[in-house]
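Our consortium's second objective concerns turning raw sequence data into structural hypotheses that experimental partners can test. To show how far this objective has progressed, the report includes one record in full. It was chosen at random from the queue rather than selected for favorable results. The single chain below, 348 residues long, was entered without modification.
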Amino acid sequence: MRRLHLIFAIVVVTAFLSAFLAERRRPAVPPEEELAAPAVAPLEPLALARGEHALRGRVKGRDGQPAAGVSVQLRPRAPSGGGGEPFFFDTTDAAGAFELRHVPAGACELLLLAPGAPGAVSEVAVPAPDELALVLPEPWSELPALQDLVRTALEGQIVPPPGLGPPPDFSGYEVLLRPRDDEARWRGALERRAATDQAGRFRFEELAVAAYDLAVLPPWAAGGSWPALATAALATESLAAPGSGEQAALRIELAVGELTGRLVDPRGRPVEGALLRLRAVGDPPERAWPAATTDADGRFLFSDVAADPGGRLYVVAVHAGAARRDTEVVLQPGERRTVAFGPLDTRP
């Protein structure tokens, strides 16, 4: 029993010694110090130059009448040296008079700001011996008033040139109207397009009365701007106002021709399925007409080919098996030209 008491005493003493040693090994925490706010130097009051002079004057318009409500602003040319930029202003009264007080002596810049007129800047010297007499610059010119938008309807028909019969179906051609200039746009003109029916008729509704440039496009070029099979200039006067009863239907003659031909081999047999391409001389490569192919009899046709009164030069190229050949041809409006290539040996 005495032995147990001894062991218990040893354990208690060991625990106290361990706690004491652990407390001594713990680093000491310095006492918290109250941080002092940094010292802030007070800013000196902003010193503005105040002079002893007064500047008086009157402002008139170009018509000689007093100009009321004009802002008069004055700024000395030389820096004040006090850290602030002096600035003096006043507004003219019904008699056009103004007064600026506490102005320092020296060269100054005077600015006049009036509604409806450009700003005017002048040099003045303070003190001024007399009252200033100032005149405003010429007022801004009035902006042109928008014209009333007048709309009407326009109808017309496209027809083939003399010498070429009308196609069995004239539908799908596109009539393009473009505003000629800025004046036309002021009148409300916008780019407009209308498709033709089977007889070649077209109609524009709610068309702004203005000057337009007209162009006719083939069905395969609808939505674009090339090639123009016919062009016309429509003056503003040619578009009558609605209800006047003077609007006549347009008749647009196409400036087109046709290129045709027949391909045969050296034995005189027709060459079927040959590919032919057409391009105007001087046009970029991407401006190529839709290709044509020969039928069972070796015949091909390019229709609705744009032509000029003086003649337009084209290059017709043929690809038939191993045969490659091209030729040039001049085409005029209303002309049906036969293109000859001679016998084609299509064998590899």
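The partners drew two points from this record. The two ends are 126 Å apart (CA to CA). The chain has three domains: 53-135, 151-253, 256-338. Both points have been shared with the crystallography group to help prioritize constructs.
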